[in-house]
Design goal:
two-stranded antiparallel sheet; 5% helix
Length: 172
């Protein structure tokens, strides 16, 4: 039976700023999710009431969620633009407001794992062209829950020559 090249199940190695600093942000705990949602706007005519007579694509929203587990201070600081002090033992973060994301977005590479080793067959990889991380986590402190930093990535269509309008590709 045909299947997608990256397989049906399993974990993934995530490399942020692929081709640049190559920041590996594993390990993860929970589902890493690449979500793509086409948005449509209904066209209506009064004679048909609420029934659409057509629809128009108005954009595509693409996002990546990565539940980071057992991260190092340096991984979190490098990903979320923090500051390290105290010999890499203390991380400081600031409020983010009014800053554009696209100009500082980076590529992300997703490589399926087999026996906790990244698959080096590039036909099985997923490349995201332009993504910027933002924080959306709730660190719980209790007897049974494992703490994770949820890293969310806003994915933008590339504006670079030859890749205009593309967000990601299967196979590299």
């Amino acid at each position: 039976m045909p299947k997608l090249p990256f397989g049906d199940k399993g974990g993934v190695r995530i490399t942020f700023d692929y081709g640049g600093t190559n920041l590996v942000i594993n390990p993860t705990f929970g589902k890493t999710s690449l979500r793509v949602a086409d948005k449509v706007s209904d066209v209506q005519e009064e004679e048909w009431g609420d029934t659409p007579v057509d629809a128009i694509f108005v954009g595509t929203i693409t996002e990546l969620d990565v539940p980071l587990a057992r991260s190092t201070i340096l991984q979190i600081v490098n990903l979320f633009e923090g500051i390290v002090t105290g010999g890499a033992d203390i991380a400081l973060f600031h409020v983010k407001s009014g800053c554009a994301m696209y100009e500082n977005s980076k590529p992300i590479l997703l490589q399926p794992l087999c026996d906790n080793v990244p698959d080096f067959d590039s036909k099985k990889w997923i490349l995201i062209y332009k993504a910027f991380p933002y924080r959306d986590f709730d660190l719980g402190f209790d007897r049974d829950s494992q703490r994770v930093h949820m890293a969310k990535f806003k994915i933008f269509p590339s504006q670079q020559s030859g890749h205009e309008g593309r967000t990601h590709q299967y196979g590299v």
